[in-house]
Design a protein that fits this description.
Rossmann fold; two-stranded antiparallel sheet; five-stranded parallel beta sheet; 7 strands; 4 helices; alpha/beta
Length: about 150
């Protein structure tokens, strides 16, 4: 039915709801899963009390980039442990770019993307997170949106 399951995560508790459902789908369809963590280049900007701090040196940006990459690898390790428990084949990707673009690049029309309705930015008055909304609009793949809420 599908070639692979694409599972985006930003490492948040809310996005992990979509991760778990995506891994379940991979198991159910007996297909491999691809988890992706996208680092936005704008993450290298530092703000202080709402004001942009300019003049970051290249070494400062590299330091920030490396920090984000380490965090991403920790997240992928957590997903890998979950996939291993479920017996799901998993490929992990850390990429830099605009999240919806990087997510849609990984999927073709024969794939399915499983993602949470919201991630790091959390639930707000908006019905669906902006990255999720853009993936739905831009992707050629089927997109399954998992309702993300942290209510127990």
């Amino acid at each position: 039915m599908y070639g692979k399951v694409i599972i985006p995560t930003d490492g948040s508790e809310l996005s992990f709801i979509g991760v778990k459902e995506g891994l379940k789908a991979a198991k159910r369809f007996n297909i491999p899963a691809v988890v992706v963590y996208v680092i936005k280049p704008s993450s290298y900007s530092i703000s202080f009390s709402g004001h942009e701090m300019g003049g970051l040196e290249v070494s400062d940006k590299e330091f920030l980039r490396e920090g984000f990459r380490k965090q991403a690898k920790k997240v992928l390790s957590k997903v890998k442990k979950e996939a291993d428990k479920m017996g799901v084949s998993l490929e992990g990707n850390v990429v830099e770019g605009i999240p919806y673009q990087e997510i849609t690049k990984l999927a073709d029309k024969n794939d399915i993307i499983y993602m949470s309705s919201h991630g790091r930015s959390g639930l707000s008055s908006v019905l669906i997170g902006s990255t999720t909304d853009r993936v739905i609009k831009e992707s050629k793949a089927t997109v399954a949106v998992v309702k993300a809420n942290n209510e127990k």
